[in-house]
TrEMBL record:
Gene3D superfamilies tied to this protein: P-loop containing nucleotide triphosphate hydrolases (3.40.50.300)
Database matches in InterPro entries: DNA_Rep/Repair_Clamp_Loader, P-loop_NTPase
A GO BP entry: DNA-templated DNA replication
Protein name: DNA polymerase-3 subunit delta
Superkingdom as given in the UniProt entry: Bacteria
SUPFAM superfamilies with a match to the protein in the record: P-loop containing nucleoside triphosphate hydrolases
Organism: Salinibacterium xinjiangense
């Protein structure tokens, strides 16, 4: 099975990186299709990191641009000796993290043709941090390849954009994502199609909705809360409920991973479960706790954003019904409720609510307390007065 087989709906992008990997595999390092720095862009859920690691696997597979099994397993586990990854759990990538990665990029490959450096979410670098990376891109070692991932080229500083080759991904179709879920995750066709539609073809979220009943239930609860707002006090209570949903979603994502990390750390330090931690080792576990707290903050913010994206699908469906636009709604499962809600207000009201959601996302990104941003947003969603 080729390393590209797990990607979906990105044939043009795959053709570009596959040609580069093939050129390098036959010793064509001077071929114009291969370069030392790449930028993979695309909307959330389009598979940026999946393509990055597939490309890395092809580059790290000796003589096989389709990726050999051993290299694929090592890349998947992030244990390949010639692969270095920066995947920050923080809101912003720290300059120290980039400096450490740049330092390791100077090493020669130990077993493969290249040393591959992957930075997920490269858009989270501040300008000062980006300038550290820029120096590495300007004068890279001959066998080092950088692969950056970001939503768009505009998210990186111009000097970095001028030094990378950009590969753009598109949003895959619902049918393509559903087919991937059926083939890879073994879910039935109806569940896969529903998950792909409600996730708006976001591959990661579609996988979660298709395989996690709790995630589906939390999404349904989000829509129920929004459709039930009838007053200002109801909007305030709805904001509290949505924030609790986001917190429970964040805990569900991070709790198991945090426990596994702590258990692994204790084992590696030679500490028995439930045993006393020696004073000399407490600082190492304290650093782990701080990293997990930062990840929890990031996960909560992501959970709130997922809720607002789900709300946008709700009001988008209502707007299309109000305007008489043909087509199947994203939330077709609750079509009767959508029609009833659309009749309680005008298209102008619905657009105002969608604008309020966009404003709330910007406010939360600017560190406005989420509860206040959600309250202000949901006051525009009051619908009972016109029913």
């Amino acid at each position: 099975m080729a390393v590209w087989d797990e990607l979906t709906g990105q044939s043009e992008a795959i053709a570009i990186v596959e040609a580069a990997a093939s050129a390098s595999a036959i010793g064509g390092s001077g071929d114009s299709s291969m370069t030392h720095s790449w930028l993979i862009t695309g909307p959330p859920g389009s598979g940026r990191s999946n393509l990055a690691y597939a490309f890395a696997t092809a580059l790290l597979s000796p003589g096989d641009p389709d990726g050999d099994a051993a290299a694929a397993r090592q890349v998947a586990a992030r244990t390949h000796p010639d692969l270095a990854v920066l995947s920050s759990e923080r809101v912003i990538i720290a300059i120290e993290e980039v400096r450490a990665l740049v330092a390791t990029s100077q090493f020669s490959p130990s077993v493969g043709r290249y040393r591959v450096m992957v930075i997920e979410d490269a858009d989270r670098m501040a300008e000062r941090t980006s300038n550290v990376l820029l120096k590495a891109l300007e004068e890279p070692p001959p066998r080092t390849v950088w692969i950056l991932c970001a939503p768009s080229e505009a998210d990186l500083i111009p000097t970095i954009r001028s030094r990378v080759r950009t590969v753009r991904l598109r949003v895959p179709g619902i049918a393509e994502v559903a087919a991937l879920l059926e083939r890879r995750d073994g879910v039935d066709a109806a569940t896969a199609t529903r998950a792909a539609r409600e996730a708006q073809s976001h591959i990661g979220m579609a996988h979660r909705l298709a395989t996690n009943a709790d995630a589906r239930e939390r999404r349904e609860r989000t829509l129920d809360i929004a459709l039930g707002i009838r007053s200002v006090s109801g909007a305030v209570m709805a904001a509290v409920s949505l924030l609790e949903l986001a917190k429970s979603d964040a805990v569900a994502i991070t709790e198991q991973r945090d426990t596994e990390e702590r258990t692994s750390a204790m084992r590696s330090l030679g500490i028995e479960p439930g045993g006393t931690i020696p004073p000399a080792l407490r600082s190492q576990l304290r650093n782990l706790d701080e990293d997990q707290k930062r990840r929890a903050t990031r996960s909560l913010r992501d959970g709130i954003d997922r809720i607002m994206v789900d709300l946008l699908t709700l009001y988008r469906d209502m707007l299309l019904l109000q305007l008489g636009v043909p087509g199947e709604p994203i939330n077709v499962r609750i079509l009767d409720r959508l029609q009833a809600a659309a009749g309680t207000c005008t298209a102008v009201d619905t657009l105002a609510t969608m604008d309020a959601i966009a404003t709330a996302r910007e406010r939360i990104e600017s560190n406005v307390p989420p509860a206040l941003a959600l309250e202000a947003m949901l006051i525009t969603a009051i619908r009972g007065g016109r029913s």
